[in-house]
Amino acid sequence: MKTFRIACAAIGAASFLIAAPAFPQGASGPIKVGLMLPYSGTYAGLGNAIENGFKLYVQEQGGKLAGREIQYFKVDDESEPSKGTDNVNKLIKRDNVDVLVGTVHSGVALAMAKAAKDSNTLLIIPNAGADAITGPMCSANIVRSSFSNWQPGYAMGVVAAQKGVKRAMTITWNYAAGTESTKGFTEGLEKGGGKVIKDLNLPFPNVEFQALLTEIAAQKPDAVYAFFAGGGAVKFVKDYAAAGLDKSIPLYGPGFLTDGTLEAQGASAQKMLTTLHYADNLDTPRNNAFRKAYALAYKAQADVYAVQGYDAAQILANGLKAVGGDLTKRDALAAAMRKTVVDSPRGKFTLSAAGNPVQDIYLRQVNGNNNELRSIAVKALADPARGCKL
Amino acid sequence: MTTATFLVQCLNAVQYGLLLFLVASGLTLIFGIMGVINLAHGSFYMLGAYLAFALAPWFGDWFLMRLVAGVALAAIFGYLLEWVFFSFLYERDHLQQVLLTYALILVFEELRSLAVGNDVHGVAAPAWLAGGFHLGGLMEYPWYRVFASAACLVVALALYAVVNRTRLGMMIRAGASNRDMVRGLGVDIRRLYRIVFAGGVALAALAGMIAAPLSSVYPGMGSSVLIICFVVVVIGGIGSITGALVASLLVGFVDTFGKVFFAEWSGVGVYVLMAIVLVWRPEGLMKRGF
What we know:
The structure holds two protein chains of two kinds.
Chain A: H1 2-19, E1 31-37, H2 44-60, E2 64-65, E3 68-76, H3 84-94, E4 99-101, H4 106-119, E5 122-125, E6 142-144, H5 150-162, E7 167-173, H6 176-191, E8 195-202, H7 210-219, E9 223-227, H8 230-242, E10 251-254, H9 262-265, E11 273-276, H10 285-298, H11 304-322, H12 330-339, E12 342-344, E13 347-351, E14 357-367, E15 370-381
Parallel strand pairs in A: 1-3, 1-4, 4-5, 5-6, 7-8, 7-9, 9-10, 10-11
Antiparallel strand pairs in A: 2-3, 11-14, 12-13, 13-14, 14-15
Helix pairs in contact in A: 2-11, 3-4, 5-6, 11-12
Chain B: H1 3-34, H2 41-59, H3 63-84, H4 94-116, E1 132-134, E2 140-142, H5 143-165, H6 167-177, H7 179-184, H8 189-215, H9 221-236, H10 241-261, H11 266-280
Antiparallel strand pairs in B: 1-2
Helix pairs in contact in B: 1-5, 1-8, 1-9, 1-10, 2-3, 2-4, 2-8, 2-9, 3-8, 5-6, 5-8, 6-8, 9-10, 9-11, 10-11
């Protein structure tokens, strides 16, 4: 027991040595990029796609951004909010990274945003859509290359109202991303004269939907808006079709309901309408070139997550270019990252004062294993950034 | 709520409860009779679901054959696992059991990731169970769900018969209450435990295989099931098959109607139920072994 304790003490002491902060790198040496992404669990595939997208852009620039080598540090966040602060501090304090990139899960991203704000580290969020990150928690050193949960939801609400939906119901997991998305939908629908008669929810990650489907059948709304992702999205869409509801009540959702899940959803998702800031068959030279390069590099089809990772790298690159790769000009770098126009595969976009993309939201329809573009649901949609003082 | 809707919700509750029972019965067997806290039980459920997915191309529409093959494979796997790992655990304290079984969760998740990847996959229900029947108004009730409930009932009855009406069941019950005495009477308790463990794994895998067409297969599907199964086992009384059945149905009803009436608080209902039962009957609803 005694040797055990001594060993523990030794390990503890050694870890302090490792954690001792190194001197910040100035205008030379590699730029340290900390990738904090899910490499295990439900979102592992998303984490890999984001990393692939990020690295693809860096490779296209010859492996360097603004003439500086990029050195990667990776931490698996396991999509576990309770470990978020510890994990992000590994990158900030132990590895002393210059820029943080992450993550997928909103709860973890909130922990990252707090740590980045406290330590004044640059943070680029390549997915997590929590409204709060570019709302009350917004900060000059935090930008997002993806979306806010409010954006696709609002756009779908606008589309639903245009289609004459008067009474709608929403259903989601009872967690931040879900309620933010359904609130966006409600706002868009009400603006067009419709109304949400009931919000259904169940605890994350419960997938026993049968009781709520029965409730939907009893209320007979004009449409249902659902927010689920991953395994939950597959199960919900299949259960909805198996209950025969898809024949009488159209099911709408943000793109996550049918992104990366179509193979598993099979026939049950066909013809469904969803809204997102990206569509697989977006036929622009920029997107085609990106998809080709991605397929060549990784032998896989690019998805929206790969695009978000790719754009995270672009935002960083544009910022670095503006300051000539000099990381000592931190505030100028942060400001330049925000002012950039990103030439994204999804179409050009800018960033709002709060750091969230101002972007077109597309209306897509499921056809086979693709989310095909139908029209632009809302042009240059900006998140209202409620609670942000920037 | 109209009467029709109410009845449909009751059907939903029973159906969910029965599926829960199928997973939890294996857990209560292993936990109650062998005294092993098996956190890896959820992984066996996942194993079953992925077996259903992996075996699908081999068996085509021979759905029942696929179930039998999957259960047989899972039982063999459980038998070997008990031999290699769990047989060393009986004399150890619960902490070491938790450590080993938690490690197994991590190993199984990683193996799954290497073998099948991290994507969500659908498993088709057999053609002869496709479609559904109309249930008042807009709602259709899938035949496959009816089949799943029926299968769970059959397994419940079979389990009850084996535990209460056969020589093997008698030995299992005896082993649960006094291990040393049973050994003294000349029963090979190690072999008996190996059979019980294999049976528990097979039950979890069967539940996974039956649930696969309903829930599809995805990473981490085992851990979500594990927690609710422990709740069922604790409510029902550790080691009691009948208790597990009653508790599963209770949980099914609380969960279903909680979602409908108290949407905001639906996650809490099941745990409130558990707290009430524990205050009222700290040993759970039933005594072990029955």
